[in-house]
Amino acid sequence: MELTTDEPGIANSDPFYIVFNFGLEAPQFDQAVGAFAARIPEPTSLALAGLGAVGVGCLRKRSVLQRRSVS
């Protein structure tokens, strides 16, 4: 979630999450929040994964083109 405004001089908030406890003890709650936070990739990690996928795609295309030219 992110809070936004059109009011001049007031900046939008940083993104944040609201987490409800539902009666868990503190250690289990902390473990659940930690597990959830670990599933959210950082933008840099996501960018590196995307670049890796593009690189693999380019190598595959190059390999296919080389096999066609040899045949």
Structure description:
The protein has 2 helices and no strands. The chain is mainly alpha-helical and 71 residues long. The longest helix is centred in the last third of the chain and has 28 residues, at 43-70. The chain starts with 25 loop residues before the first helix and ends with a helix.
Provide the descriptors you would attach to this structure in a database record:
71 residues, mainly alpha, 58% helix
Question: How do the helices and strands line up, and which of them pair or pack?
Answer:
Blueprint: H1 26-38, H2 43-70
Query: Helix tally?
Result: 2
**Cα Rg:** 23 Å
What summary fits the major beta sheet? Answer: none
Series of secondary-structure elements, N-terminal to C-terminal: HH
Distance N to C terminus = 55 Å
Please count the beta strands (DSSP E, at least 2 residues each): 0
Q: What class would the helix/strand composition place it in?
A: mainly alpha
* Uncertain ranges: none
Helix content: 55-70%
Quick check: average pLDDT?
A: 83
Cα shape? elongated
Question: Strand percentage, roughly?
Answer: under 5%
In short:
With about 70 residues, the chain is mostly helical.
